[in-house]
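User: Predict the structure for this protein chain, please.
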Amino acid sequence: KVDQTELVLVTQFGSIESTQTEAGLHFKTPFVQQVTRLDKRLLRVDVQPSLFPDKESRILNIDAYVRYRIKADDAGIRDFRESLITETSAQGPISQIVVAALREEVGGRQRESIIGGQIILNANGTRTVKPLVGSDGVSPIREELTRLVTQAVQKRVDEQGFGIEIVDVRIKRADFPNTIVESVYDLMRSE
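Assistant: Here is the predicted structure, written as structure tokens:
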């Protein structure tokens, strides 16, 4: 039985015999053939927060995630099984590709375009970030960044034959590292 949320791969003695993408009843040879079930739905990988230098070599701590799905065709399922094996084992390689693409894109940008806002020095010496958002409440600068990272990640996973479609890469948080935050607070206290 294949559920509507599943992609099924039938193997016989370790070699791939067939794939099933449609829900319904399907048959296999008992004891000889094994069934591997993969999720057809949107999958998410949380990328480990990492430190990235911006264009001026100032460090930002960026926390991101990527959403993807396994291509629901015979070639996509086979590629996924041969290269990444399972959804769990896919997290490491996908995370590494996302981190590399983020590092490349963040390294060529100003801090303001990465955090999606303009840093303003107040009269009392404090700094605030004024969000740069459009009428829809979304930062067009941040959207451009994530769109370019998504395209770069899709290109790399296609080159490596992972059999997945990258839906999007999103930045959850872009902050100053804790050591810098403390030094900023110390500076503000001394003023």
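The longest strand covers residues 59-70.
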